[in-house]
Amino acid sequence: MKVLISDSLSEEGVSKLQEHFDVDVSTGLSEDELVEKIVDFDALVIRSGTQVTKRVIEAADNLKIVGRAGVGVDNINIDAATEKGIIVVNAPEGNMLSAAEHTIAMMMSMARNIPQANASLKAKKWERKNFMGVEVNGKTLGVIGLGRIGAEVAKRAQGMEMDILGYDPFVTEERAKSMGVELTTVDDIAKRADFITVHTPLTKETRNILDAAQFDMMKGNARVINCARGGIINEEALADALKAGKIAGAAIDVFTSEPPFDCPFIDIDNVIVTPHLGASTEEAQVNVAVSVAEEVISVLNGGSARNTINIPSVKPDVMAVLAPYIGLAETLGSAVAQLLDTNYDKIEISYKGEISEKDTRAVTVAAVKGVLEVALDSAVNYVNAPALAKSRDIEVVESKSETSDEYASAISIKLYQDSVSRSVTGAVVGNEAKIITIDGQHVDIVPKGFMIVSNHINRPNVIGPCCLALGANNINISGMQVGRAEVGGQTIMALNVDAEVSEEILDEIRGIDGIIDATLVTL
Ligand SMILES: NC(=O)c1ccc[n+]([C@@H]2O[C@H](COP(=O)([O-])OP(=O)(O)OC[C@H]3O[C@@H](n4cnc5c(N)ncnc54)[C@H](O)[C@@H]3O)[C@@H](O)[C@H]2O)c1
Ligand SMILES: O=C(O)[C@H](O)COP(=O)(O)O
After folding, report:
1. Same domain, yes or no, for 128 and 259?
2. Is the previous residue joined to 312 through a cis bond, with omega within 30 degrees of 0?
3. Is the predicted pLDDT of residue 200 greater than 50, yes or no?
4. Among 102, 175, 199, 229, the one annotated catalytic
5. I need a surface site. Which of 12, 61, 69, 281 has the fewest CB within 10 A?
6. Domain tally for the chain?
7. Calpha distance 40→483 (Å, rounded)
8. Is 456 tagged catalytic?
9. Which residues, 6+ apart, have CB-to-CB distance to 18 below 8 Å?
10. CB contact at 8 A, 480 and 453
């Protein structure tokens, strides 16, 4: 079998692979070169430097596995790989300490102007008064994303006597408390923190999580750090805030486009930058290279992988019966997680009717994956979803009842946090998945595309203005369902729309008299 390594990989990983396979190390390939070359290979091992695009996947007729020696898989077209049956694995733990240490190094370098002072002295200047710094002791650090790296950063900053504020929709109050972190909102972090660091994946929710509005709220002495992914902090807004003197500095390791030679803040004096070095330590590189090499060896020899991103660990015969329900459960999980706008500590999956007699473990895993994916994106997969829920103190409960009201089988997923809960129920009719209730109210929705779900008072002159607002913004409504509540009572409305709806338009809808809430659900 043949393995292509297309980014620089630690020798320990290369030699492990060479013990088993014919290994070709070719770095710096263009997309065209990779498309041409990949045809012959059974495995591809990469870091962040290789873009595994749809074209590359389409050309990869022998490829069985893509191994990412690191965390982020945003440079891999996962859907294309999944469609082609190519396993994608990563090495989620090997570089977390290095990334956390780099974050702390960036914070300290920024606090004490070390890169600028170093450059000045090497230019034979003695400019002590230009490099007055600040202490971090007693200061407040805001950590956005309290996963593996965020948690390690918080721990290290506490060692330097910093107070930690955190935001992570996926972390419960209890867990935050055990980490010594005060859980709050992004805006509160923007207002109160002296240093702010981001440690999330780049998703629809995290893109521009620090934007012009947040820079406007920050204190004049605020400093921001991005050692996660370019785009989590809006680069234009950051440049504007620095130029206007709204904040005191920034330390950036990752960029929307790398190398970032056209980046709008790269030349600003109080910005320090590194060329995506978070994982660049000897230790981390050995860890991730060995981890990925072991995964590739196992998979190419017919075994399984530990850190799969896209392949369910379900036996083929079980899959054949459960496949439509696995898809349904994942979709329902995603829908309900998008509807609940607080953290949750319990996921309840209820099976009714014929499905309750089956071994539903795989369906439950799919439901949990669907729920968690809203916050964790590609970090969650069929294999790790239950463990991720457990590690975040989220209880997963299954219940079964042999009777089902209208459909042969129905699945409900309910998320809880204290007295707040939301639920979505679905069924499979023919081969088509349907949402049949939202929060217990009957609807009949094909769960696909964009949907606005709102609660409103069941009385005249509420639905019309919503439709007018969408029409005025050129958003076409392709379907509408309204729950059945008594006149004057609270009811659900679900509007299928043909395009994504911005927060501004949703705010317009939320402002309509009689509307209680409105959420965009993307499926
Ligand atoms: N600079 C580097 O070289 C380097 C090295 C390693 C990792 N990384 C990047 O660091 C990031 C974090 O990695 P990790 O291993 O800690 O991942 P992780 O999956 O362990 O943690 C990510 C956390 O982000 C949280 N999150 C998701 N959506 C959120 C949202 N909307 N708001 C706030 N929090 C949200 C999740 O709940 C999770 O706890 C990734 O983007 C990864 O690619 C960069
Ligand atoms: O996601 C990651 O693991 C980091 O961004 C590291 O990327 P690298 O392996 O290309 O250094």
Report:
1. yes
2. no
3. yes
4. 229
5. 61
6. 4
7. 55
8. no
9. none
10. no
Known active-site residue 199: no
Instruction: With beta carbons less than 8 A apart as the criterion, state whether 44 and 6 touch.
Output: yes
What are the C-alpha distances in Å from 333 to residues 152, 262, 441? 29, 40, 17
- Mean pLDDT to the nearest integer, 143-160: 98
Q: Are residues 208 and 237 in the same domain?
A: yes
Catalytic residue among 258, 283, 348, 398: 258
Q: Is 353 in the pocket of ligand 2 (CB under 6 A)?
A: no
Residues in the chain: 523
Establish how many alpha carbons lie within 13 A of residue 489's alpha carbon, considering only the half-sphere containing its beta carbon. Answer: 9
Percentage of the chain surpassing pLDDT 90?
80
- 258 a catalytic residue: yes
Last residue of a domain, one of 395, 423, 447: 447
Task: Show the tokens assigned to 399.
Answer: 């219940």
The residues, ordered by sequence, that sit 6+ positions from 57 with a Cβ below 8 Å of its Cβ are 63, 77, 80, 81, 84, 86
Q: Which residues pair with 401 in a beta bridge?
A: 352
Q: Estimate the crossing angle of helix 114-122 against helix 96-111, to 10 degrees.
A: 60
Residue 318 has a pLDDT of 53
Do 140 and 234 belong to one domain? yes
Residue 391 sits at the vertex; the CA angle it makes with 388 and 396, to the nearest 5 degrees, is 70
CA dist 295 and 39 (Å) reads: 21
**For 68, which DSSP code?**
E
Q: Which domain holds residue 161?
A: 95-273
Instruction: Give the number of whichever ligand sits closest to the CA of residue 228.
Output: 1
pLDDT band at residue 388 under the 50/70/90 scheme: confident
Contact present, 477 and 497 (Cβ < 8 Å): yes
Give the separation between CA 81 and CA 310, rounded to whole angstroms: 8
Q: CA 426, CA 253: separation in Å to the nearest integer?
A: 44
- Both tokens assigned to 461: 């002159």
CB 344 within 8 A of CB 418: no
The atom number, within ligand 2, closest to the CA of 48 reads: 10
Q: Which residues pair with 200 in a beta bridge?
A: none
Pocket lined around ligand 1, Cβ cut-off 6 Å: 71-72, 92, 95-96, 99, 144-150, 167-170, 199-201, 203, 205-206, 227-229, 253-254, 276, 278-279, 375-376, 379
pLDDT in tens, 278-292: 999 999 999 999 999
Strand bridging mode 450-457 / 515-522: antiparallel
Same domain, 163 and 196: yes
Provide the CATH number for the domain around residue 513. Answer: 3.30.70.260
How far is residue 304 from each of residues 62, 301, 422, 490, measured CA to CA in Å? 18, 9, 36, 50
- Token readout for 334 is 């995603």
ipTM confidence score: 0.99
pLDDT in tens, 294-349: 999 998 998 778 888 876 544 445 545 676 898 899 999 999 999 997 889 999 99
265 CB-near residues (< 8 Å, 6+ apart): 235, 238, 239, 242, 250, 252, 271
> In the block, which residue shows the tokens 């020696």?
69
Whether residues 318 and 241 share a domain: the answer is no
